[in-house]
Here is the input.
Amino acid sequence: MQLPAHGSNPDHLFKALGMEPPTKMVDFSVNTNPLGAPRAIKDHWQGWLEEIEDYPDPSALELKKTIAAHEGVAESHLLPGNGASELITLIARYLHGKQVLIIHPAFSEYESACRNENCTISYHIVHPPNWQLEKGALQQKIDAVDAVFFCHPNNPAGVQYDRLTIDWLIDACKQSKTLLVIDEAFYDFASNPVTFIHQAGRSRYLLVLRSLTKMYSIAGLRLGYLAGRAELLARIQISQPHWSINAIALKAGSLCLKDHQHSEDTRAYMTGERKRLFSFFRKNDFLHSPSAVNFYLIRDPSLDDQQELFMYLLRKGLVMRHTYNFPGLEGTWLRAAIKTEAENNLLMGALSEWKQGN
Ligand SMILES: Cc1ncc(COP(=O)(O)O)c(C=O)c1O
Here is the structure.
């Protein structure tokens, strides 16, 4: 059976498979913060109603100031966008017709955005269980392209590399005058977040991408930002529609970034749940990726293709993300988000039953 591509749209998945959606379901395919949006967003929501009557500030000045203070980078080194997705589309437009390397497995939108811009795409695939970058082979590929997309920590495995490895990658791209885009959409879920945002303003060959929709659970509002040299950002911004970020997202973004407690609580929660889930997987003979963030890959080693397990869980209303459209994984793993404690317990319960029946 061919499973449809999906992610955060379980009704579409059930419909495409001709299945009646169960009355209760848990969507483990969506990677946003299970603790929800910061309290301050809910408290201010009513007061923002009048914002919808005016055009938003097209230069997003207040938000830029907040991001600059939060990150310790210059405002001129920042470009906010309507979600990281918009910024990926703008980067792809800037790269129109160029040679692009994607370090896979990774977020599928780098490829679709670059294909839309007639870029020539090549892959460098990292493999489980150690997800090594294989520097020699990667160096050769970097030398042959104009740009590299690197998701760090990577989606779908959640792997976070050590600083030295990424420093090597940044340097290798700089030496060969290749633009490196590091997507840090999930970096702040790690107990020890690793970021390269401070280097982006100093190099013509480095862009760092961030999303606010994951940590602050505002996927419906859409907000992200890009860090890099001012001249490079200006060229990327040329294609951005005027008033691209709505007025409420501008307000909400500033509040989110000021709420340090929310991200600290989230990191502490994730650390505890990762420990609990991973110890259950080890005891029950499931393999998992060494994720540092809020999602992970899991597989039953007795199966090569995980479709049977995917369907088993789906029938119980537990929606995992299959990996057929992730180069390098091709259905041999399932991705799951870390959800609330009760939801994670449901998954562990279903996985125990699966093992008992197999
Ligand atoms: C790695 C990665 N980068 C960027 C995005 C897009 O994020 P946003 O919601 O800010 O557009 C996603 C969304 O799933 C993602 O997984």
Q: What stands out?
A: Residues 83-85, 107, 151, 155, 183, 185, 211, 213, 219, 224 surround pyridoxal-5'-phosphate (CB under 6 Å).
